[in-house]
Structures are given as structure tokens and as C-alpha cells.
Amino acid sequence: MLKARIAPLSKSPPPANSLTQVLGQSERIKDVVEECADDLSSVNAGLKRELLDGGISPGIENALEESEAIEGKVQDASQALSLVNIALKEEVQGRAILQERLAVAVEQGDEARHASLHDPLTGLPNRALFNDRLEHGLAHAKRNGISLVVMFVDLDDFKSINDSHGHDVGDIVLTTIAARIKQASRDEDTVCRHGGDEFLYMLVEVRNEADIATIAEKIIAMVKVPCNIRIRDIDLSLVIHPSIGVAIFPADGTTADSLVANADKAMYQAKRNKSGYSLFADLTLSPG
Predict the structure, then answer these.
(1) For residue range 25-66, what is the model confidence (pLDDT) as tens digits?
(2) 121: three-class secondary structure by DSSP
(3) E strands within the chain?
(4) pLDDT digits (tens, 9 = 90+) for 137-156
(5) What is the pTM of this model?
(6) Catalytic pick among 119, 154, 197, 252
(7) Is 71 part of any domain?
(8) Which of 85, 117, 149 is the last residue of a domain?
(9) Domain region containing 244
(10) For the CA atoms of the chain, what is the radius of gyration?
């Protein structure tokens, strides 16, 4: 009986991939050791009874003493394993706490990084992230001889919305319009909130001015869809008219600053003409 119980201990334990697995293996070994101690104790008790009855030879008596010594060692081993298991449990718990703290720190770091690069109201990239992507886009365009377009989008008379209906309504309008412009963009493009009621839109690899016109008209149409808002038990339907200025690399600028500045100038031309959108190239060709 003892041999059958002890046999598993002679096998090498399977490789452990974590402290939790090691702890589980150690606890199983402790159970086996405790069973062995119980078995030895039972055998020794039986031998003692036979000694008291006078039916055991001196050799068996010596074997009993050795067996009792082994029983003591097994019990000591069981107690030592208990201490090891307690230490392992504390280590597992400590590691779990550290991993949880690390996960929280990583998440907070990701959130902080996202917050530093995105507009808190609309969730769009902010000017810092837009500038970074525009610089990369320009480098790519220069290397590959392709076009790049910057659109400057401004919402006409937006101040009157805040003045008439309050900033809560204005914020709803901004988030709605931001989502619409984002929806009109492609995955490889970048839309950012430049500030206030102004947005920047970078497009890469646009083939010709006809495509630019199509995209600008699509944005205008989507922005002009009424914003239906219910706030403070009041229903509002607000129609927003955008003005868009367009600057094209390399004809209208070869740096991020020049493209944004020239798109801004074209936007004001569109606002003055109430034309919806205007190309910077048209502005430079117009009289005066």
C-alpha cells in the first residue's frame, strides 16, 4: 500500500508555465505526502500492537523504529511543503496585484496619450496629431510624387447658435458635424478639429480637381442635413452651412504650415462668395 502511494513522487513533474501551476503541483504533492504519512502511521500502529502481543522478532522491532523515523521525516516534509505552499500563494497573490496595477497603469497611459492627441468634445484628432500625420503625408507625397490635399472647413454663423441656444446645443452640433465629416472621409485620410467651429481634413492621393470637387460637395451636403436636437424639452432643427477652402500639394504649398494657411485663405474666399468651397489656386488667379 505504501509503495503504491509513494510511486507518483518518483516521476518528474510536468513543466510549469506559471506560479499558479507550480502551486497546484506542490499542493498535489503535499496531499500525497500527507497520505503517505497517514499510511506509515497506520502501519506503525499495527506493528506496535503486534509487539505488545509479543509476536514480533527483534529484527521487526528495529524495522519499526526505522519506519517511525521515516514517518517523522515524512511529517516534517509535509509541514515544510505547507510553508512552501503558503509562500507560493502569497507570491501568486502578489504577482496578481502587480499585474493588475500594471494593466491599470498601461490603460491610464493609453488614455492619457489618447487624450493628449484628440479633441475631448468630438473625439477627433487634435491639431498636434493632425500636424504629425500631415508631416508624414507630405514626406510620403514627396517621395512618391503624389498629390496631397488639405481642406479647411468652417461652419458659417456658428456663433449665433451658441448665442441663441446656448453652448450645450452648440456642442451637440459640433459633435454631429464632426461625425458627418469623419463619415465622409476615407480610412487613409485624417479629419481633425482645428478649434472652435473649424475642422481640417487631409486627403492623400487624390487624382484630380474633379475628385476634390466631388469630395467637397459631399461634405457640404452631409453637413447641411438638418441637426434635429431635443434639449430642455425643446425641439430644434438647425441647418449648418459650411465653407471649405482647399490647398493642394505641391502647387499651393510644400510645407504643413503653408498648406493649412492657404486652405484657410481659400475658406474665407468661399465664405465671402457663399460658394460652399474654393480652391486656393482660384484665389491666386482672381483679380486683385
Answers:
(1) 777 777 777 777 777 777 677 667 766 666 556 666 676 677
(2) coil
(3) 148-155, 190-195, 198-204, 227-231, 234-238, 242-249, 277-279
(4) 999 999 999 999 999 999 99
(5) 0.66
(6) 197
(7) yes
(8) 117
(9) 127-285
(10) 39
Burial profile 154-182: b = 16 or more Cβ within 10 angstroms, e = fewer: bbeebeebbeebeeebbebbbbbbbebbb
Single-letter amino acid code for the residue at 261: A
Query: Which of 117, 150, 172 corresponds to the end of one domain?
Result: 117
Is residue 197 flagged as an active site residue? yes
Q: How far is 38 from 35, CA to CA, in rounded Å?
A: 5
Q: Phi and psi for 245 in degrees, rounded to 5?
A: -110, 145
269: nearest Cα among 242, 251, 247, 244: 244
Task: Give me the count of residues in the chain.
Answer: 288
In a domain, 122, yes or no: no
Are 96 and 146 in the same domain?
no
CB atoms within 10 A of CB 226: 10
Q: Are 236 and 230 in contact (CB under 8 A)?
A: yes
> Which residue's entry shows cell 502511494?
5
* 45's grid cell: 500502529
- Please give the Cα distance from 8 to 128 (Å, whole number): 64
